[in-house]
Amino acid sequence: MHPVNYLPGPATVRENVRFARAQEPPGIEVYGEAVRKLKHLVGTEHELHILCGEGMVALDAAVCSLVEPGDDVLVITNGVFGSWFEDLVARHRGIPTVLACPWERPVSPATLDAFLRQTEKSFKVATLVHCDTPTGVLNDVRSLVSLLMRRGILTIVDSVSAAFATPLEMDAWGIDVLLLGSQKVLSCPTGLAMVAVSARAWAAIETRNTPIAGYYTNLLLFKGCVETGKFPYALPNSELAGLLAAINNIIQETPEALQKRHRTIAAAVRTGLQESGLRLFLDDGYSPTVTAFRIPEGVTAREIVADMQKLFNITITCGLDSVTDTVIRLGHLGENARVETTLFVLKALGAVFSRRGVPLRKDPGEVFFREYCKIVGINS
């Protein structure tokens, strides 16, 4: 049986991206074209740079370059990846203050506003995550950044798992450092990370009192490299070629159609799960890229994941951290977000629960397809 990937990343890679990676055209020209097109897609006129490494290298580079020893940094978190910023800040000798919010819903702008009004600290930087994939929660980045910007706080936004599938306007929203990855909605192999930096953030980086304690994660070494053609590392030509092909796939589909496809698939998946009797992990704030649901009594998440792999050659995954054993995540992002693939995954999911002696009220695949047809306006 052909393997099916339904992970919340890395997403399935389209064949034309694989083919492009085998061609290895000159890297400098491809790098420049990819940067120009990415800037347009995320709504920025600021510098954007492509780093060789998984998305975490972007997080590390942002904190390494912007945070100095002794800097107060506000870590806004309602999930696993949001909390990881605390460790990154501490490793670079910043002083993290964590605003921990419930995992079951987006960070409330009112909660952040109240916190900022009562705190006595003067934060230089705040970190937040657009979509925290362990739960699939989508935060209202625009509103949160607006509150922080009014107080002169620089913002680092991790949009690795949300960008391109949902509206994102770096300049219009006032984001200072935007972090992206190749392996999610772009549907490239894992291996590239992107960092866009505002003028405010560059000014803070350039006027540091202490040297940046990193080399590859020192964003100053990348500044102006598109114009000069001088890079602080050997360009990964094949990876860049694949990235450009993936960007062109989005442009050809159009960003609006891509976002609509993700919204439609995600909404139909949630309906399929809920009408079958499964409980979603979130109360609201659903991401168009990931859906997490709770496992009913009588079976574990690990058992369902293992059965999906063994019986149907479908790869899904459990939650992370405190919800590893009780939550399953479905990744309908990028090339995964196709109606045929999703229908197969949900039909298999219903069969696996039945084999485990936990029959569902309805077939989640059938409900998904009915809802999908209803949303797009065709008869099922």
Task: Draw up the topology in text.
Elements: E1 4-5, H1 15-21, H2 27-41, E2 47-52, H3 56-66, E3 72-77, H4 80-91, E4 95-100, H5 109-118, E5 125-129, E6 131-132, E7 137-138, H6 141-150, E8 154-158, H7 170-173, E9 177-181, E10 192-197, H8 199-206, H9 225-228, H10 237-253, H11 255-275, E11 279-280, E12 290-294, H12 301-312, E13 314-315, E14 317-318, E15 327-331, H13 339-355, H14 364-376
Structure description:
The chain has 380 residues and is of the alpha/beta class. The chain folds into 2 domains: 14-252, Aspartate Aminotransferase, domain 2 (3-Layer(aba) Sandwich), CATH 3.40.640.10; 255-376, Aspartate Aminotransferase, domain 1 (Alpha-Beta Complex), CATH 3.90.1150.10. Helix content is 42%, strand content 16%. The chain contains 14 helices and 15 strands. The strands form 4 sheets. A 7-stranded mixed sheet has the order 2-10-9-8-5-3-4, sandwiched between helices. Strands 11-12-15-14 form a 4-stranded antiparallel sheet, covered by helices on one side. The protein has a two-stranded parallel ribbon with strand order 1-13. The longest helix is centred in the last third of the chain and has 21 residues, at 255-275. The protein starts with a strand and ends with a helix. The mean pLDDT is 95. Its cofactor is pyridoxal 5'-phosphate. InterPro entries: Aminotrans_V_dom (IPR000192), Aminotrans_V_PyrdxlP_BS (IPR020578), PyrdxlP-dep_Trfase (IPR015424), PyrdxlP-dep_Trfase_major (IPR015421), PyrdxlP-dep_Trfase_small (IPR015422), SP_NH2Trfase/AEP_transaminase (IPR024169). Substrate binds at residue 329. This is alanine--glyoxylate transaminase. Residues 58-323 form the Aminotransferase class V domain.
